[in-house]
C-alpha cells in the first residue's frame, strides 16, 4: 500500500514538471504561428522577381 503513495507522489511531480515545461513553451512563443512556416515555401520571394526584372532590363539596354 505504501508503494501507491510513492507512485502518486512521483506521478504528481512528473505532471508538475510537464506543466511547467508547457507554460514555459507558451510564454517563449513556441506556439505562435504554426501555419506560415510550412506555407512559406509555396510563395515566391518578391526580391527575386525584382532582381530578375532588373537583370532583364540591363540585358535589353546592353543589346540596344
UniProtKB/TrEMBL annotation:
<protein>
    <submittedName>
        <fullName>Cbb3-type cytochrome oxidase assembly protein CcoS</fullName>
    </submittedName>
</protein>
<dbReference type="InterPro" id="IPR004714">
    <property type="entry name" value="Cyt_oxidase_maturation_cbb3"/>
</dbReference>
<feature type="compositionally biased region" description="Acidic residues">
    <location>
        <begin position="44"/>
        <end position="58"/>
    </location>
</feature>
<dbReference type="Pfam" id="PF03597">
    <property type="entry name" value="FixS"/>
</dbReference>
<feature type="region of interest" description="Disordered">
    <location>
        <begin position="40"/>
        <end position="64"/>
    </location>
</feature>
Amino acid at each position: 500500500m505504501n508503494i501507491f503513495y510513492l507512485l502518486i507522489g512521483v506521478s504528481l511531480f512528473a505532471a508538475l514538471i510537464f506543466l511547467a515545461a508547457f507554460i514555459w513553451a507558451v510564454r517563449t512563443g513556441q506556439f505562435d504561428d504554426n501555419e506560415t512556416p510550412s506555407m512559406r515555401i509555396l510563395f515566391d520571394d518578391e526580391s527575386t522577381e525584382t532582381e530578375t526584372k532588373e537583370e532583364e532590363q540591363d540585358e535589353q539596354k546592353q543589346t540596344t
